Amino acid sequence: MKYHHVPILLKESIDILNPKPGGVYVDATLGGGGHFENILKHAEYKGTFIGIDQDEDAILAAKTNFSKLDCDIRLVHDNFCNLKKILRENKIDVIDGIIFDLGVSSHQLDEDTRGFSYNKDAPLDMRMNQEQELSAEDVVNNLPQEELKRIIAEYGEEPWASRIADFICEARQRERIRTTGELVEIIKNAIPARARRKGGHPARKTFQALRIYVNKELDILESSIKDAVEVLRPGGRICVITFHSLEDRIIKDTFKLLSTDCICPKDLPVCVCNHKKLIKVLTRKPIYPSEEEVKSNPRARSAKLRAAERL
Questions:
Q1: DSSP H or E run through 18
Q2: Longest Cα pair distance anywhere in the chain, in angstroms?
Q3: Helix (H) or strand (E) holding 305
Q4: What is the DSSP letter of 94?
């Protein structure tokens, strides 16, 4: 099985993660294995390497791609929100590094049957884990109009969310919306022509919103980062690559909280929270892809890398 994914911010993230022989490293979003492969190389294939992905295609491809390597590789079909359980099942207490490459992979965008892309007519699916029940088709056809509007506005940051939700609800009364192509046409009709001429593809923000909602991407992010920091050994590092402002804000705020000692209200005369900082933030500002990388891979244009080290 060919599972193609171009790893973004590869050199920058591996340089910060700095894998060393004998360590325990986790790729929480295995995808096409690009970051994972480079972690293996930098650690000279010595250590324990765990690759996690909720997309079974990614796990099956990795089993083929890494099967001939003589090292301790463990591939897990699961969601990174279950990191502690995964480590416990693998009898691992602490790790030396972890990377999260969030968002949708090149393979998922390019795969005709997955329904992630607004550029291809496909079943309206968008499930990263194909074993889960809820799909984008269910969301678009079954959710109340106000809830659809909220999802598109909040997760897609789409200024035309209200009209798009109206048009979706009108269309689904006539006939069930089953494909990405049908949804794209509805969105195009909902957004006035003058607005469609700027800001990229008119369906981009709505598709982003539906994908985030279907896969609960933002719901699990803060707790997953906290879990990852908790299992890092002192000096261990965490790298997170995000692709839109909502993800980046959660990572930034979570890193800020975890790198702060007292979180009591400022007007309290003494600290009562007993909160202790756990990390040192290594990226005061996010690291962006180079112009060369964006030119060779336009999907990198919105990527941001943040990293921290366990104290």
A1: none
A2: 63
A3: strand 304-310
A4: -
Rounded (10°) angle between helices 161-174 and 180-190: 130
Per-residue pLDDT at 107: 74
For 10-103+219-310, CATH gives 3.40.50.150
Mapped onto helix, strand or coil, the DSSP state of residue 196 is helix
Tokens of 85: 């359980």
CATH architecture of 112-215: Orthogonal Bundle (1.10)
Alpha helices in the chain (DSSP H): 10-17, 34-42, 56-65, 83-89, 106-110, 136-142, 145-156, 161-174, 180-190, 193-196, 204-215, 221-231, 245-258, 291-296
- Please choose, from the candidates 81, 25, 71, 85, the residue with its C-alpha nearest in 3D space to the C-alpha of residue 50: 25
Which regions of the chain carry the CATH code 1.10.150.170? 112-215
Q: Please give the radius of gyration of the chain, using alpha carbons only, rounded to the nearest integer.
A: 21
Residue 103: predicted pLDDT: 78
- In this prediction the pTM is 0.93
Query: What are the residue ranges in the chain where pLDDT is below 70?
Result: 1-5
For residue 183 the two structure tokens come to 């949804």
299: three-class secondary structure by DSSP? helix
End-to-end Cα separation, the chain, in angstroms: 41
d(CA 72, CA 46): 8
Q: What is the DSSP letter of 230?
A: H
* Alpha carbons 301 and 7: distance in angstroms, whole number: 13
